[in-house]
């Protein structure tokens, strides 16, 4: 168990054993939190929680002692991080951060300028590539940190979820999809003229897979590496694209609409690093800054 897992455990207790609320605070999925509890108790052969009708209701005596000890460890850890932040002006160097273009302008337009202004002695080298390509670059140690879209296929990458969202069907206000707000199916989407992000983006591969699972073939007219081009094309043409909902929320022209997709198309952004290699305090600091930035700016 590491610091992250101690945070999971104490957050569950502090939220009255409400796993749904705890998962939202921790920016992870509820099934992932439930799996963590089960695996830890099985591995350590100990029960931390009292259960009633399948729900967590209290701590066992062992759980209460573990909770008290966890608070002490987290307090020491937070003190160490505070010292690090106080001395951040002494941290200098360059960090290579990979960010897919599809999320760079939408999700990082505030975080990157804030980082630059607050940390003039640290140089950020932003590498703009699709999540599929960034995953390979991270494995080859060509970048230090990558913001990757689920699914992450390499086993030697450790990740922390910073954004949980969905991919949606996007169209203009005159499209026939605008007359309904219910989730659109892949069968319905297969009958439309589609334009998609190209195969350098992880979402491209997810879309293709979802159509295959649904047993239908999409009518793809055009693929691009620029989400803003796809959005602009949808403004004036009778076509549909599939993009993260965050993009529609930030689209300045306010001329596009969207509908969820059935089955639900989960879209998550994770901050990722290579496992089992040494990482400097500089990389630790940069990662922590962006994680805190997303926590502060997440939707209520």
TrEMBL record:
It comes from Vagococcus fluvialis. Gene3D superfamilies: 3.40.190.290, Winged helix-like DNA-binding domain superfamily/Winged helix DNA-binding domain. Pfam families: HTH_1, LysR_substrate. Belongs to the LysR transcriptional regulatory family. PROSITE patterns: HTH_LYSR. InterPro entries: HTH-type_LysR_regulators, LysR_HTH_N, LysR_subst-bd, WH-like_DNA-bd_sf, WH_DNA-bd_sf. This is LysR family transcriptional regulator. Keywords: DNA-binding, Transcription, Transcription regulation.
